[in-house]
Amino acid sequence: MSGIDIETKRKLREMGAAPMLEALEAQDETLVLGMAFEERLRLVVDEAHSGFNHAKVEGLIRRAGLRYPGADLRRLDLVDERGLDRNVIAQLGTCSFIERQQNVVFQGFTGSGKSYLGCALAKKACQHRIRAHYVRMPDLEEAWALAKDKPQGQTKFLNKYAAFTLLVIDDLCEASHSSSYVEQMVMRS
Predict the structure, then answer these.
(1) Is residue 95 predicted with pLDDT exceeding 50?
(2) Does domain 73-188 match CATH 3.40.50.300?
């Protein structure tokens, strides 16, 4: 939309409304010609809100540290051959287990897709705007060992991982037996 003067654009950017300004400038004059102001404003707000939500979800996915950021529950290969129940996968995709504060454990042989499934579940949680994080148990164990040596390290460690609504812990069996304390502390917080 070319009718907005430079000063108004500056003010919109200063107020943090740059996405609205971009949506307003992206409106095709021929398509919105004759529309009421309220209708045009609704379109602008819808477009800006959609961009805001997309950026929020992408940020959550990026910060989740997923091993497979492209993982997707809709693209699971050989679901029936792997013994996965499509109804259970669909139910997990709703992320209702998070609201019920239930744990999910994937068991299987090496290469069976447990890590991919965990990442897909974490990504789905991010799409629901739930804060998720992926970590391998050996890395978690190492971070715990480093935290124990710092003042307030254990508290900071526990607070960091307690801040995630969904925590995907991969390679749980690769950890040493001394990690049982870490597991208990993380699961409790």
Answers:
(1) yes
(2) yes
